[in-house]
Specification:
By secondary structure, this protein is mostly helical. It has one domain. Helices cover 94% and strands 0% of the residues. The chain has 2 helices and no strands. Helix 1 packs antiparallel against helix 2. The mean pLDDT is 83. InterPro entries: MetI-like (IPR000515). It is found in: Membrane. This is ABC transmembrane type-1 domain-containing protein.
């Protein structure tokens, strides 16, 4: 019984580690996107200073598109990660059920 309990504990710890790694990955991607955004903003500011005012509306449109792009990427990433997290939670529930069912029978 102790061995199965320890195995369950190990599996839980592994799942938690996996979730933490996913969160860290998400944070890293967020930081990368923010850096990319800052870089793009600096580039656009430079362009604004260099180009004549006739191109201003076009540049503003470009800026808007470049601002929206990382947000869309992030949203896509979240949508991709969400099923993975749900799958992990489902696996965890199944493991818990597998380990708790024999115990329940033993008690009754």
């Amino acid at each position: 019984h102790l061995a199965t309990f320890l195995l369950l504990l190990l599996l839980l710890l592994l799942l938690l580690l996996l979730l933490l790694l996913l969160l860290l990955l998400l944070l890293l991607l967020l930081l990368l996107l923010l850096l990319l955004l800052l870089l793009l903003l600096l580039l656009l500011l430079l362009l604004l200073l260099l180009l004549p005012l006739l191109l201003l509306p076009l540049l503003l449109l470009l800026l808007l598109l470049l601002l929206l792009l990382p947000l869309l990427l992030l949203l896509l990433l979240l949508l991709l990660l969400l099923p993975l997290l749900l799958l992990l939670l489902l696996l965890l529930q199944l493991l818990l059920l597998l380990f708790l069912m024999p115990r329940m029978r033993l008690l009754s």
